[in-house]
């Protein structure tokens, strides 16, 4: 019996979680991501449900989703520069504390009944900005925390924090959204239900992310191109030598230093053939099948006849549960060719599963296919991220990962905004079906036209 447990349960679990088991610093930074994104998804689901209830349309959910994702377009490149210029752990810690303060302010606003929809949109924008700066630092930090042979495992487990955290956060929050249902033991209320409690819960999750970040001890820096850095230092020395202390010159040269470092990252991803392919795949994937935050509330209310936010919460939780399964399967890959197969079939599944979910009118079946959505889409994002981070050099890793996030989050911002407005003109189900079909057609077209991509599908290996 013990041999069977070891072979079929203990050893597979150990192999899939090897980075969490072996590397304490990675464990702390992983928990930082789980709690941070868990708090974010609790807030996002609650805020979009408040918006659809108060406005009666999908426009305000679209605006809130747009506000939360737009910062990834605006600030990701700056976050990548910070991740390569400063101690990455300190960047994660500072942004985690900033998000905690913001989440507490939102919770206080809810408790005092002083929250308006525009407050939620502004809060979503500020929180998104902090996460846009934090995410490149986390992704660049991870390869410095684990051995090279465990890098795929660690990167894919980190992807679990993005999508799987929907499950961890909504597992508690969803019941509390059910018309104020409370969590009780023997008739004694442990946690009162309602919107206010859920937003407090979001603040608690975010605070735990900052606490986890404090325990990380990894010291990790990238580097800005030596030519840029030498030029900047030389100018500083000349100003000191001749006594030139013009504040305008300092600001100008400082901005030039930052912009030059960011442009180097852009040049790298657009001139590196393999990375540019993955960036294109991720951009279309996020635009067409992952931008559903703005239309999921109206889908749950109109198609699934939801009367409170719990159905929406359970749909997002099911997506998160599927994400956990999908990412853990990717984390356990040990052969290169398997990576190629996962890339192809998770891409195909990413387009098909939203169509199947949209066709369901029963809540349980819709949750089932939302789980399949999570498994395929999270696997696709995880495996593309693995390829991007393992191909690029460490000194550029912060900027490259930030540009990966920029293309994903920035495109999702505008897609969510557009879909939110379109859902008021067409049924949300129509949007799910059409965008899913377009992505499948796009994937087949690009796979047919790019021999390098077909080689990756077949062998799992990349060549520059």
Please tell me about this protein's structure:
The chain has 464 residues and is an all-alpha fold. It has one domain: Up-down Bundle (Growth Hormone, Chain: A). Helices cover 80% and strands 2% of the residues. It has 19 helices and two strands. It has helices at 2-16, 18-22, 24-55, 59-85, 88-111, 117-141, 151-163, 165-176, 195-214, 226-242, 247-271, 273-288, 296-302, 310-331, 336-359, 363-391, 397-422, 428-449, 451-459; strands at 183-185, 188-191. A two-stranded antiparallel ribbon has the order 1-2. A hairpin with a 2-residue loop joins β1 and β2. α3 (24-55) runs antiparallel to α9 (195-214) and α14 crosses α16. It is globular. The N and C termini lie far apart (48 Å). The model is unreliable at 226-244 (pLDDT under 50).
Category by helix and strand content: mainly alpha
Number of helices: 19
The number of strands is: 2
CATH class: Mainly Alpha
SSE pattern:
HHHHHHHHEEHHHHHHHHHHH
Q: What separation lies between the terminal Cα atoms?
A: 48 Å
Strand content: under 5%
Cα radius of gyration in angstroms: 22 Å
Q: Identify low-pLDDT runs.
A: 226-244
